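User: I'm writing a tutorial on reading structure tokens. Could you give me a worked example: one chain, its sequence, then its tokens, then a sentence or two explaining what the tokens reveal?
Assistant: Sure. Here is the example chain.
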Amino acid sequence: MEAWHWVSADKMTRYAPRVPVIVGETLRVDPPVVLCERGLHASVRALDALQYAPGPIICRVQLGGEIKHGDDKLVATERTVLWMYDATNVLHEFACRSAETALLIAQVEDARCWGAIEVKRAWLRGEASDSDLAAARDAAWAAARDAARAAARDAARAAAWDAARAAAWDAAWAAAWDEQNSVLEIMLTEGRP
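And here are its predicted structure tokens:
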């Protein structure tokens, strides 16, 4: 079964005994495997795997032997790396796209928020400094605080709509999560050497 797995920048396994993760080589552990406790983990969806990432190196892996399924991850007795690469820049760009999606969904028009994304992309191209990026981040946080205060006032006036909004938000969140996973997987697959 193919899945996604992230490793640290040193390309070593996360837990003892720490060994190198090498394309084409198969790591093995003796059964039984236990989710979150013992075995070689991965996730079917790249976005699910990302929440467990110890670093920026993405691996497309083949799991074998004994495999157990959890909600958002798998554990197996065998894991072979099919390919790997440093996805640092892809992750930064994915963060920008995710932020844009969130701003569009929330109908945010504050230029400070959109400007922070532009500065982040300039930083990725080497056209903005770390201090430029920090200033843009601070401006975006100030915009978010302003929006939160306004939203709190509006929420007090609209308490009766909370349940309907919560249901709509849950549906929108699930759809957005699926869409973001698709975007991330395409970016990771296209970005590899």
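What the tokens reveal: The first strand starts at residue 2 and ends at 7. Helices lie at 46-50, 88-105, 111-124, 130-157, 162-191.
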